[in-house]
Amino acid sequence: MIEQTTAKILALNIEGHKHLPEIEEFASQKSFDVVELCEVFEENIPTLLKIFNSAHVLFAPAMYLQGHPSFDREGVMGVAILSNLPVVHSGYEYYVKHDKDIPVYDHRNPNSSNRVLLWADLQIGSELIRVAVTHFTWTPVNGEANDTQRRDLGELFKKLDVIDPDFLGGDFNLPSGGELHKLLTARYRDNVPEAITSTLDPNIHRTRGSVRLVVDHLFTKINGRIMVSGVEQIFGVSDHTGFTATLTPTA
């Protein structure tokens, strides 16, 4: 048997249950070793396992969503990693945590949820890689950083210093080239191609193309042991565009 040396990954904010038919149609034509998802309803995990034909799933809850004008259901929502690679270790850490373990989300305050970093050690052939995903703190002013984001990024850095992922994906709510993105890229390489000018799907996102920001990112450690190649942007599957790419351990 030929030893596997690369992993195909999909990173996507799926916006709850809204786009599952489109995601299923897309996934039926593809095959992924790893899938990193934001805004996942816990109740949809069995469906997502079938859609992506995945063997393993890891989930970290961030909030209990109810009464949101954009969603016609309620339930526990968080981030997830699906994998067809062996999962050796995994865990999650909160870098923003409110009084309750799973706070009830207040749609008038987009930062009323917990913020969590979910990670997994995955086996690619003889190599072990650590991947992670998060949905970072929101900012209301056209992507401009605010004090809440500055504070929360400091807390995220504390968790990253300990967890030390080789690959970090997710919806960061931080535009490329902005103040806080520059702090991240002082530590990590962002593998989103510079030619990409927005990760808000112009036909699905509520702004309908009037706002163009790259807020979803694919980070690897500078001089790290993971090479990211073949990055492709995926439209028409959620209000944010997704990314597919190939991960190759280099040492």
Helix content range of the residues, please? 10-25%
Which structural class do the helices and strands define?
A: alpha+beta
Q: Widest sheet: strand order?
A: 3-4-2-1-12-11
Percent of sequence in beta strands? 35-45%
End-to-end gap:
21 Å
* Inertia-based shape: globular
Strand element count? 12
Number of helices: 4
**How would you sum up the major sheet?**
6 strands, mixed
Gyration radius over CA:
17 Å
Low-confidence stretches are none
Mean pLDDT: 95
Characterise the protein shown here.
- With 251 residues, the chain is α+β, with helices and mostly antiparallel strands.
- The chain has helices at residues 20-27, 45-52, 147-163, 179-185, and strands at 7-13, 34-41, 56-65, 75-83, 87-96, 115-124, 127-135, 167-171, 188-190, 216-221, 226-234, 242-249.
- A hairpin with a 7-residue loop joins strand 11 and strand 12 (242-249).
- It is globular and about 55 Å long.
- It starts with 6 loop residues before the first strand and ends with a strand.
